[in-house]
Write a structure and sequence with these properties.
The protein has 389 residues and is mostly helical. It contains 20 helices and no strands. The protein has one domain (2-187, 194-388).
């Protein structure tokens, strides 16, 4: 457990210079505290030779290039100028659209829209909005792999689980509007008339990647599902390039968007995940002297924060609870909420990492903005858990 704390502190500090490097070195530090040297090298080898991770990392590197080509071609301007829903609506809705069609790195697709439509809105607030509103809809999305698997572990239908998560969804939506959207000032001044074509083309470019990703994966024809993600984002990039009304400077786009940073974020994240799964954290968690529901809420939140994942903490915490007693939909919703919002604010969560890099915001400022609504949700789940024990 000491190794986990030290590695997370290191990531928080070192990420000020380089988040990808911080994740990789943080994972190695965790391994040094918990595993023999041979096992650390084994986890590094398994991570960099896992084709699913490599394809996902490649896809993550392509996604910022989509935003770069859309920005330099004027397609992002066209979208903002013709999506006539006001600045507050634009900032809340654009990440929500990506959330309804979830795919790895989707936060990078909405980030350029927030950058353009947000105007002089502070960068740390843009990151908070991008992260918060994207994941609100993922939490209750019935095709979310994390929700489906977590519900299955708990022995209930995904729709029952979703129904009990709706109160959290609306409460978090309210907090997002009060804490974030309310602070957005000004409006978008439209000097040109509305043009449907200039709205549909950039929307199609943005949506083609997650749509292709979802459709190909639903066919179950690929052994490595991340190939579908890479294919989808590659097609979106080609569409943006081919539909650009002007000649693009690809060297400038590559220099500005820094796709290698996003590639190595994924490598670092999964290296941390693979090393974490090999530690004795699970047995230590089970030994913590807390009532079972409260234990699952507290540790679930911490694991969501530590791993930047939902399914991994759920696969640890839910079985711990089930060893004591059957889980009810209400208990499931409380535990899942705690895990989910630990994941939302996690520094090793890919959407957080890529948003911080895109908007050039420090982790310190990110936590400062997200701390209040996240703490409120955690406090509510903690209090409820005391009555469910």
């Amino acid at each position: 457990m000491l190794g986990l704390v030290v590695s997370l502190v290191f990531i928080l500090v070192a990420s000020r210079k380089s988040l990808p490097l911080a994740l990789i070195l943080g994972a190695i530090i965790l391994g040094v505290f918990s595993l023999p040297l041979s096992s650390i090298f084994e986890k590094i080898y398994l991570t960099i030779t896992d084709l699913s991770i490599i394809f996902l990392a490649l896809a993550m590197g392509v996604i910022p290039l989509i935003g770069g080509t859309m920005k330099h071609s004027g397609q992002m301007d066209d979208l903002v100028n013709n999506l006539r829903i006001g600045r507050k609506g634009l900032l809340a809705l654009s990440p929500a659209i990506m959330g309804l069609l979830p795919m790895p790195g989707g936060a990078l697709l909405s980030a350029p829209i927030l950058e353009k439509g947000g105007g002089d809105v502070p960068a740390d607030l843009k990151v908070a909005i991008n992260d918060w509103f994207r994941h609100l809809f993922v939490m209750i999305y019935p095709l979310s792999s994390a929700l489906i698997a977590s519900a299955k572990i708990s022995g209930m239908s995904v729709y029952s689980a979703m129904l009990y998560l709706f109160p959290t969804f609306f409460f978090a939506l309210f907090l997002g509007l009060v804490c974030f959207i309310r602070r957005v000032e000004g409006d978008i001044v439209y000097s040109d008339r509305f043009q449907l074509k200039k709205l549909l083309i950039p929307l199609a470019i943005i949506l083609v990647a997650p749509v292709l990703d979802f459709l190909i994966k639903s066919l179950h024809i690929l052994r490595i599902k991340e190939i579908a993600t890479l294919f989808g984002v590659s097609i979106a990039l080609l569409c943006s390039i081919s539909l650009s009304p002007k000649r693009l400077d690809f060297k400038e786009i590559f220099r500005e968007m820094k796709p290698l940073n996003f590639f190595f974020i994924i490598i670092g994240m999964f290296l941390f995940l693979n090393i974490f799964k090999s530690t004795n954290a699970v047995s230590l968690i089970a030994a913590i002297p807390l009532p079972i529901t409260t234990l699952c809420v507290v540790v679930g939140f911490l694991l969501g924060f530590a791993t930047g994942r939902v399914l991994l903490p759920a696969s640890i915490i839910l079985p711990v609870y089930l060893t004591q007693t059957p889980i009810t939909p209400l208990v499931f919703a409380v535990i899942y909420t705690a895990i989910f919002f630990g994941y939302v604010i996690s520094p090793v969560h890919p959407c957080v990492g890529v948003s911080l890099i895109y908007f050039k915001v420090s982790l310190k400022n990110f936590f400062r903005v997200l701390a209040v609504p996240t703490f409120i949700i955690f406090a509510v789940t903690f209090i409820i858990s005391l009555f469910l024990t």
